[in-house]
Amino acid sequence: MNSFEDLGVPQNLLNKLFAQGIDEPTPIQYKAIPKALDGKDILGLAQTGTGKTAAFVLPLLAQVLKIGGKREEKSVQSLILAPTRELAKQIDTTIKAFVEGSHLRVRLVVGGVSISGQIKRLSKGSDILVATPGRLIDLLERNAVRLDDTKFLVLDEADQMLDLGFIHSLRKIADLLPENRQTMLFSATMPKKMGELASSYLSDPIRVEAAPSGKVADKIKQSIHFVSKQDKNRLLTDLLARHKNELAIVFSRTKHGAEKLLKTIINSGCSAVSIHGNKSQAQRERALDAFRSGKNKVLVATDVAARGLDIPLVKHVYNFDLPNVAENYVHRIGRTARAGSDGCAIAFCSSEEISELRAIQKILGTSIPVASGKPWVDFDSETHNRKNPKSRTKGRWNRKKFSGSSKKKNSFTSPQKSRRGRSGKAAMVA
After folding, report:
1. Strand, helix or coil at 336?
2. 84 lies in the same domain as 174
3. Phi/psi at 4 (nearest 5 deg)?
4. Fewer Cβ neighbours under 10 Å: the N or C end of the chain?
């Protein structure tokens, strides 16, 4: 089984795949598609960039096209839930490329846009509805959509839905769905709460896995700069200036921080845009379109952009602020090295972020190569430093070391436990 035809994908969808230049399944597609076509519930573990969207879209479409028939008023035959507007829109775009010329009604409902237009479009029923949980709840409360006839359900990036606090919305939605349905749940990680979610939605699922948590694409070159908080802006603008003609994403921890960074980057002479939760949907789409087209070379983003965005030409990803949730580091840097290309992931670490770095390197299973500066904490004296905070040595970014390569590389090895741990909630920045 080394082709989509061998996996059982019908000819009409094969033609669409070939037209897009896709002729060989990825590992997650290879494992998930045959089982999904057999009608089994699927628990899929896969990082972004592994082809998981097609892993659920192809078997879903194969069955929906086979069923055919007319949809009842406000009904939904297939429901796909995604945690962010950007990911939902991308799934919608992927599906429409496969169903072009067919009779299928594919609808997209997300926040940030007028709900009245969405209500009108849903009134005639939907073959496939792609939605974010919050907006779907709004529509359900207005009796604009019904789920009692839903035969297929997909939850994409389920772990991020939990991180963003959608667990209660997901429970409400689950109560409205018929028990007799096929469900596919995909996630990059398996936190403890995922067990509850999986048991609520899945029935005797088949577990398939590819690119497990902490696995980083081989073609991503990682590096870290130990730099004081006040020197981060200067280091970033210097690095961006070195590749002005290449696309770069800069991650900030907060919405306010993203806007401050945007101004700094623009003032340095680089063309940049930003996306975060304070932007309307139209503003986010315009920013992404400008970035994809290359009109603006830098995208400043919060973690709202860490999942699902597929922009093949992104060459550099900067973690200006290290994420509070260690797994988000992997999702962030997965925005580069797409479609077989190379990419660079550059992280900045201030003295205040040392515990975040430990957690990140713990899930990676390795240390990130040091590009400049010195590690902020000597782990051998960590206990002493905790008791005597004044004894801590504060490093500074060494411009000479940044400008040229050092003969002796610094190493930074993660301890078994971080001071703050990994269980802290991400800031609500989406």
Report:
1. coil
2. yes
3. -65, -30
4. N
- Pair (182, 295) in one structural domain: no
Q: Which residue has the tokens 């007028």?
A: 114
- Contact at 8 Å (CB) between 94 and 309? no
For the segment 210-219, what is each residue's pLDDT rounded down to a tens digit?
A: 865 556 666 8
Task: Mark whether 162 and 246 lie in a shared domain.
Answer: no
CATH code of residue 38: 3.40.50.300
Rounded Cα–Cα distance for residues 421 and 403 (Å): 34
Q: What is the pLDDT of residues 220-234, one digit of tens each?
A: 899 999 999 999 999
pLDDT of 274 over the 50 cut: yes
Same domain, 252 and 348: yes
Q: Domain containing 287: what range?
A: 220-403
Amino acid residing at 187:
S
Tokens of 324: 């509070």
d(C-alpha 197, C-alpha 176), whole Å: 15
Q: How far apart are CA 275 and CA 255, in angstroms?
A: 9
Record the pTM: 0.70
**Contact between residue 241 and residue 310 where contact means Cβ atoms under 8 Å apart:** no
Q: Using CA atoms, how far apart are residues 200 and 406, in angstroms rounded to an integer?
A: 54
